[in-house]
Write a structure and sequence with these properties.
About 50% of the residues lie in helices and about 5% in strands. The protein is mainly α. Among the domains are: about 160 residues, no CATH class; about 120 residues; about 60 residues, no CATH class; about 120 residues. The chain has a three-stranded antiparallel sheet with strand order 7-9-8. Strands 1-3 form a two-stranded antiparallel sheet. Strand 10 and strand 11 form a beta hairpin. Helix 3 runs antiparallel to helix 4, helix 4 packs across helix 5 and helix 24 runs antiparallel to helix 25. The longest helix is centred in the first third of the chain and has 26 residues.
């Protein structure tokens, strides 16, 4: 949390990645063997597009399957699907119950990080027949799978070690399989291969291994690479029978990893195998779209036009494919499932039209690069203040204690500071400047004047937003053969969030004031909180206060996200004193507190603007929260939230002292009571 402001300075830098091209096969007629590597390969001659702010995952280059070569793009796990005819390869055995995977090397589109190199060096331990213990693998995978994430004895490190041991056994069996084809295996190795079909390579253990991979607490892109690696090894060996449970767990793991193309292939496979559909598999398919958009949600380059963003920014094509699969397998569409699909349009984060920062983060370097220069700076401060020797010692201890916590940038210690920018955002971003729907605005790079609401409804404003409303409208008329559904409050709230994330605040307000009431739906606190968060991003304090007044007049409940949105808006425009007062008033009047990160954010903004007094005001309020005691009539939710706040280690005196030291300020014991 101490690095929020420092990270903000780096977040605006453009990011570059590789746009991958891919093709997909519908099926292969000459072989019924399942190719688990249908997620395809990374071509060696891919063109690098600097404007694509997306990441690349490792690719697996498969051999040709009959006359069709399977290649899928991995930039969004199957963004483009085409057919490429290839030369005929050696025929594969006609056995649909065995998993097959061509053995090819994995390729990565980006350089391997230092952390991954260290991890790989640890993993590349020489594995021999003496290390082969299938009973140990079976026991560890079973134990890792039985754990639930909400229990106290859940050990993610054990799960990681169990999965890594399982992968090592698969690599060993894969090497034995290759040696067996060349006739270079011993009798012991042949017996190991024969026994592996009922142990390490069994469908049940493979299914459990997929579940264990989801319990390791790893990042999404790491999960994506390892799921593909396991699929590659299993398919290369080709001794694992395909079952209903195994195909579902494969779909689940790929869905969590964000492998959209692989998930769509598994959906079509289950359809071809006439496997009974269930709700969970389609929810995992939708989750794959959300997971694939995680990187864009965190690292979107807001300086790029939407047309230059990755294709995952508009997920309509994959949602339509899921709907077609559901209809062909006789699974009905309901409103809850439709709402999950609509959420995909807001899963890639906010665009540049939805944000405006009234500040920028700067650095103030102190001292020098060497210890001698550091000592000279201390002597200069000491002599300049002309204090007695006792105070000089305290000054040196003060500087040394702070120096340990301050960030090191270019081998120099620096203070992180904020500089408020007084320039206002473009007026078309401010809804309070365009309250009247008939008021016209001048569109960027154009001389035409157009009503703001009409402009936001134009497809040129945001193709993704236009697709979201078109998709929602198609659901109400029966999409892809399904029966028509009615949009409920959750559906409209999702559309409001999509408008807010695309900067279409006038359209979001139209839904709030017109669309929802006309459909007999009353907005709730989620609707208002979403709009408040959008207004906070552009610093529209005037309209935020009006929305808060409407909530009060309509007796709409407020919660911690209401306070969080209001504080974010105040901090964005530099009203730090107002943010501190707002938090205290909400607690005193409504017994509502924002998330603990909001307390830390207020302190960071105050220290970044050299408002040490305001920062200590917030620290004093946090101490009051620690002294708070329950009263008769307090709600259980308030008691629980206050208990978590008081026990939060991030709000402890030690953590607050470190936070102050990070900004070059001192928080002493005298500041606590």
């Amino acid at each position: 949390m101490m690095n929020i402001l420092h990270a903000k300075a780096r977040s605006s830098l453009p990011r570059h990645a590789t746009r991958l091209h891919a093709v997909k096969s519908n099926a292969h007629s000459a072989s019924k063997r399942l190719n688990l590597n249908s997620l395809g390969s990374l071509a060696e001659d891919q063109k690098v597009k600097k404007h694509n702010a997306f990441y690349s995952r490792p690719q697996i280059m498969p051999e040709s399957v009959s006359h069709l070569e399977l290649k899928l793009n991995d930039a969004a796990d199957g963004l483009r699907i085409n057919h490429v005819m290839t030369t005929t390869t050696s025929p594969q055995p006609n056995n649909s119950s065995i998993l097959s995977f061509p053995a090819r090397a994995m390729h990565t589109a980006s350089a391997t990080s230092e952390e991954e190199l260290i991890l790989q060096s640890k993993q590349e331990k020489v594995f021999t027949s003496m290390d082969y213990e299938p009973k140990r693998v079976l026991h560890n995978i079973k134990e890792a799978t039985s754990w639930k994430k909400n229990i106290k004895d859940w050990n993610p490190q054990f799960c990681r070690e169990a999965v890594q041991d399982y992968i090592s056994h698969l690599k060993y069996l894969c090497n034995l399989r290759e040696k067996s084809k060349l006739g270079e295996t011993s009798q012991l190795e042949e017996d190991i291969l024969k026994d592996a079909s009922s142990t390490v390579l069994s469908s049940n253990l493979t299914s459990d291994a997929m579940n264990a991979m989801l319990k390791r607490k790893v990042k999404t892109h790491h999960l994506s690479k390892e799921v593909r690696l396991v699929e590659k090894l299993i398919g290369t060996i080709g001794l694992t029978p395909l079952t209903n449970r195994l195909s579902f767990n494969l779909l689940r793991a790929n869905g969590k990893a964000g492998n959209i193309g692989r998930v769509m292939s598994l959906l079509n496979l289950r359809k071809a195998k006439h496997m009974k559909p269930n709700r969970e598999e389609f929810e995992h398919a939708i989750q794959s779209i959300v997971s694939a958009g995680l990187y864009l949600r965190k690292n979107r380059n807001v300086f790029l036009n939407e047309t230059e963003q990755p294709e995952i920014d508009n997920p309509t094509r994959w949602l339509d494919e899921i709907l077609v699969n559901m209809n062909s397998r006789g699974f009905p569409l309901d409103t809850a499932m439709a709402n999950k699909m609509l959420e995909c349009y807001s899963s890639t984060g906010r665009t540049g039209k939805a944000t405006h920062f009234f500040y920028r983060v700067t650095r103030e370097y102190i001292g020098g690069n060497t210890s001698n220069e550091r000592d000279e700076s201390i002597d200069t401060i000491r002599n300049g203040r002309n204090k007695v020797e006792e105070v000089d010692v305290l000054c040196e201890e003060h500087l040394n204690s702070i120096d340990e916590q301050m960030p090191l940038i270019q081998n120099r210690k620096a203070r992180v500071r904020m500089k408020m920018v007084h320039s206002m955002p473009p007026y078309y971003k401010m809804p309070s400047e365009n309250k009247v729907s008939s008021s016209k605005v001048r569109m960027p790079n154009k001389n035409d004047l157009k009503p703001k609401l009409e402009w936001e409804m134009d497809r040129d404003f945001s193709m993704s937003l236009t697709s979201a409303f078109a998709f929602a409208d198609s659901l109400t008329h029966g999409a892809c053969g399904h029966k028509a559904i009615e949009l409920d409050r959750v559906s409209w709230n999702v559309l409001v969030r999509a408008c807010v994330y695309r900067g279409a605040m006038m359209r979001a307000l139209e839904i709030l004031n017109d669309k929802m009431p006309n459909n007999g739906i009353d907005p709730d606190k989620v609707t208002y909180n979403t709009i408040l968060s959008g207004l906070a991003r552009v610093g529209d304090k005037e309209l935020m206060r009006e929305i808060l007044l409407i909530m009060t007049n309509k007796s709409i409940a407020k919660d911690k996200y209401t306070v969080q949105a209001l504080v974010d808006g105040y901090l964005n425009v530099g009203d730090i004193s107002g943010a501190v007062t707002l938090v205290q008033d909400f607690f005193n009047q409504h017994h509502i507190l924002p998330p603990y990160t909001t307390h830390l954010k207020i302190i960071e903004f105050a220290l970044g603007n050299d408002l040490v007094y305001e920062a200590k005001r917030q620290v004093y309020f946090i101490q009051q929260l620690h002294k708070w005691r329950p009263k008769h009539g307090d709600s259980p939710s308030l008691l629980n939230f206050m208990n978590m706040t008081q026990k939060n280690p991030k709000l402890s005196p030690r953590s607050l002292k470190r936070l102050f030291a990070y900004f070059g300020e001192k928080l002493t014991e005298e500041d606590f009571f």
